[in-house]
Design a protein that fits this description.
Distance between the termini of chain A: 69 Å
Number of helices of chain B: 9
CATH architecture of chain A: 3-Layer(aba) Sandwich
Shape of chain B: elongated
Shape of chain A: globular
Oligomer: heterodimer
CATH architecture of the largest domain in chain B: 2-Layer Sandwich
Number of domains of chain A: 1
Radius of gyration of chain B: 29 Å
CATH superfamily of chain A: Thiamin diphosphate (ThDP)-binding fold, Pyr/PP domains
Structural class of chain B: alpha+beta
Largest sheet of chain A: 5 strands, parallel
Strand content of chain B: 15-25%
Helix content of chain A: 40-55%
Distance between the termini of chain B: 73 Å
CATH topology of chain A: Rossmann fold
CATH superfamily of the largest domain in chain B: Chloramphenicol acetyltransferase-like domain
CATH class of chain A: Alpha Beta
Number of helices of chain A: 14
Structural class of chain A: alpha/beta
Order of helices and strands of chain A: HEEHHEHHHEHEEEHEHEHHHHH
CATH topology of the largest domain in chain B: Chloramphenicol Acetyltransferase
Helix content of chain B: 25-40%
CATH class of the largest domain in chain B: Alpha Beta
Order of helices and strands of chain B: EEEEEEEEHHHEHHEEEEEEHHEEEEHH
Largest sheet of chain B: 7 strands, mixed
Chain lengths: 360, 416
């Protein structure tokens, strides 16, 4: 069974890629092939989070099509990689993520309505509540991993037990900043967790053209840190691997690179048409690997799921997201002071002139 | 009543074509349910309804093109006001900030002054007049010319009124004519006629043809070549490789050495410059059910005839089912059009924009030719070469054709 789970389809040629060492706990049928790292009640809580994340994601694409959001980057299919990893954090841990990581950011306290603002060109989307130590989503690919290393190094120097997790994709591992971040984290043993969601594509570039390495996880070897590949559509495997990495970081044992193998079911963004570069057959196969369905089946086997509860969970998710939309859209447009004051402590002469033009 | 305005669903989208309506006029639609399929220059997208209600009116019929910022659909959601929905192009302002467009038209991108940043919008937006969007320059022009912006239909993004819109309004006023929106050509279709809207592809073809016709003064030169050896070579190659080597593949291969010798035929006229291309990307005309497409065999000079034939076959089937990418459809530096495939003889092809010449090849027909004073039968293949007369003189055109005739008459010359 384990072998079957560890088979993924990537790339335009639908080449079969199997990784024998990929961590896996829940198989496609939702049966345990290892030991569950969390109890049933926690699993039910995370199941609700998975459903809510998917509801947000679906709404995100819808709102963009209605002209109410700027370009949106769907995370469909990556829910378990995000929810499972974020669930392993303490509330005071840092998170440095990207435009496709709404599920993880929300888990760590970034409100849905603020995430929506960040996708509608509103600077206030970059300001979560004060107690939330999640940086605004990075739009530039790969530029933010060094921030997580710096933050976690600062925590280490101050002698706290706080760690930083950073999310990025397979494409980001080809950026120079990935090397700098990994190298620094390795040398200084910073309390950092590098969580790579390998979703098969960097826009249209398939994973096998991204790196000649067999896995992304093995890159950790070169930096003297622990690296591990997990089935990113297996909530339990992602949770367990992240928990171990977080514990190691907190214990002063340094950074970890986790490669969560998942699949980007949707387009890169609402401005992309994957039909031009990948076989629709892949998307169909990805549906068999739905990370949420796997947890649902597990709960059902355990007698902890029924249709009534499902309906209630779906309804609550839908209401929560609709409320977030309402809240985000009910805000007055940002003031010019807000927009011009968001970047520099003191406005440059050019900005000052533009500001005066707008406000005069 | 809610107006659902076509948003920019891409990045910098200007217009989209309605593919099909998924909810008819008079039918109900649920919140976020699929309402209409539209095609942008990138892809086909399903647009979800921003409110639940009855679809009162479609903004455009299937096949029509609609600009970003114009009304895509009107949906009756039970609300009384006709104010823009949150999905609308305009943003409702707080009550105390409602501008009077007659007196104090707000600037594009202006904000309510003195509002609390995180304050909530007041619930009632009934009184909000639709905002007129226009740049200050355009506003000034309108004011100077006495044009009321509220009476002008904007064609810019989000319905923004452009300088051209105001100029049209001034003109209309001068003519003492009908409102700007109604200024269209007189109807040409009567009850006995049928109006068939052109598809996006057809309109693209039409635009390019008109542009080429207007821009490129082209001349066409005709000739014929004895194709017996060419046809023999084709047969031999097809047999040896168990693959149908098309005549087109051989012609493409034969053209490249002539282009190397006469680079003016593999060039682009750019203002006062002629840009000579050192790579030879040969576009091949493909007839598809949707219309003419000219995909490109890149670096044809570096390919064998076999490879060219395989590439053309791939391009032709890709063109037929419209799966070719932008790379396959662009970058051509010379065009070969095999009208012989559909039985054609000579033609007067139009030079594709961005190139200087096009060769059309007709069907080889057994003809009587005089050779050494004797009439013999030979398969004569008609050639028609159109070229840009701005950069290619008649003598040069003849030289090019002569070299081409040599190559095609004796394939050894270009297959070597």
């Amino acid at each position: 069974m384990k072998d079957i789970v560890a088979v993924w389809w990537f790339g335009g040629d639908s080449r079969r890629v199997a990784w024998p060492n990929m961590r896996n706990i829940l198989d496609l049928e939702g049966r345990l092939v290892g030991e569950a790292p969390i109890d049933i009640e926690t699993t039910r809580r995370l199941y609700r989070a998975l459903i809510e994340t998917r509801a947000y994601d679906k709404k995100g694409t819808t709102l963009q099509r209605q002209g109410r959001l700027a370009t949106y980057a769907p995370l469909l299919g990556q829910e378990a990689a995000q929810v499972g990893s974020a669930a392993a954090l303490d509330p005071h841990d840092w998170m440095v993520a990207t435009y496709r990581d709404a599920g993880a950011m929300w888990m760590q306290g970034y409100p849905w309505e603020v995430l929506l603002l960040s996708r509608s060109g509103d600077e206030r989307g970059g300001r979560p509540p004060v107690h939330v130590d999640v940086l605004p989503p990075s739009i530039t690919v790969g530029a933010h991993m060094i921030h997580a290393v710096g933050i976690s190094w600062a925590e280490k120097l101050q002698g706290t037990d706080r760690i930083a997790i950073t999310y990025f994709g397979d494409g980001a591992t080809s950026e120079g900043d990935f090397h700098e971040a990994m190298n620094f984290a390795g040398v200084f043993k910073t309390p950092t967790v590098f969580l790579c969601q390998n979703n098969g594509y960097a826009i249209s570039m398939p994973r096998e053209r991204q790196t000649a390495s067999d896995t992304i996880a093995q890159k950790a070897d070169a930096y003297g840190m622990v690296g591990e590949q997990v089935d990113g559509n297996d909530l339990f495997a992602v949770y367990e691997a992240t928990k171990e990495a977080v514990d190691r970081a907190r214990a002063g044992e340094g950074a970890t690179l986790i490669e969560a193998v998942t699949y980007r079911v949707g387009p890169h963004t609402t401005n992309d048409d994957p039909g031009r570069y990948r076989d629709p057959e892949e998307e169909r196969l990805a549906l068999d690997r739905d990370p949420i369905e796997r947890v649902r089946r597990y709960l059902e086997h355990e007698g902890a799921w029924d249709a009534d509860w499902e309906e209630a969970v779906q309804a609550k998710a839908s209401t929560t997201i609709e409320r977030a939309v309402e809240l985000a859209e009910s805000l007055l447009p940002p003031s010019p002071e807000d927009i011009f004051g968001a970047v520099y402590e003191e406005m440059s002469p050019d900005l000052r002139r533009q500001f005066e033009q707008v406000t005069s | 009543m809610r107006n659902f305005v076509l948003p920019d669903i891409g990045e910098g989208l200007v217009e989209a074509e309605i593919v099909s309506w998924l909810v008819a006029e008079g039918e109900s639609v649920g919140l976020d349910d699929p309402l209409v399929e539209v095609e942008t220059d990138k892809t086909v997208v399903v647009m979800p309804a921003p409110v639940a209600g009855v679809v009162v009116r479609h903004g455009a019929a299937a096949g029509e093109t609609i600009k970003v910022g114009s009304v895509l659909a009107v949906i009756d959601d039970g609300s009384q006001d006709d104010s823009p929905s949150p999905a609308g192009a305009t943003t409702p302002l707080a009550n105390d900030e409602i501008p009077d467009p007659e007196v104090d038209p707000p600037l594009v991108g202006s904000f309510g002054k003195g509002t609390t940043t995180l304050g909530r919008r007041t619930e009632s937006v009934n009184a909000a007049a639709p905002r007129v969007l226009a740049l200050p320059l355009v506003r000034k022009l309108a004011k100077d010319q006495g044009v009321d912006l509220a009476s002008v239909t904007g064609t810019g993004p989000d319905g923004q009124i452009t300088r051209a819109d105001v100029m049209a309004a001034i003109e209309a006023k001068a003519d003492d004519a009908v409102p700007v929106v109604a200024r269209q050509a007189a109807p040409v279709a009567g009850p006995d006629d049928e109006v068939i809207p052109m598809s996006k592809l057809r309109r693209t073809i039409a635009d390019r043809m008109s542009q080429s016709w207007a821009e490129i003064p082209r001349v066409t030169t005709f000739d014929e070549v004895d194709a017996s050896r060419l046809l023999q070579a084709r047969k031999a190659l097809s047999l040896r490789h168990s693959q149908n080597i098309t005549l087109e593949a051989l012609v493409v291969k034969a053209v490249v050495p002539a282009l190397i010798e006469f680079p003016e035929f593999n060039a682009t006229v750019n203002g006062n410059d002629m840009v000579v291309h050192h790579r030879h990307h040969i576009a091949v005309a493909v007839d598809t059910p949707n219309g003419l497409m000219i995909p490109v065999v890149h670096d044809a000079g570096l390919l064998t005839v076999l490879e060219i034939a395989t590439e053309i076959a791939r391009l032709a089937s890709g063109a037929a089912d419209r799966t070719l990418g932008a790379d396959d459809m662009s970058g051509g530096t010379f065009t070969v059009s095999n009208i012989g495939a559909v039985g054609g003889g000579h033609g007067t092809p139009i030079v594709p924009l961005g190139t200087t010449a096009i060769l059309s090849v007709g069907r080889a027909k057994d003809s009587a030719v005089v050779r050494n004073g004797v009439v013999v039968v030979a398969p004569m293949m008609p050639l028609s070469l159109s070229y840009d007369h701005r950069v290619i003189d008649g003598a040069l055109g003849r030289k090019f054709v002569a070299r081409l005739l040599e190559n095609l008459a004796e394939p050894a010359l270009f297959l070597a």
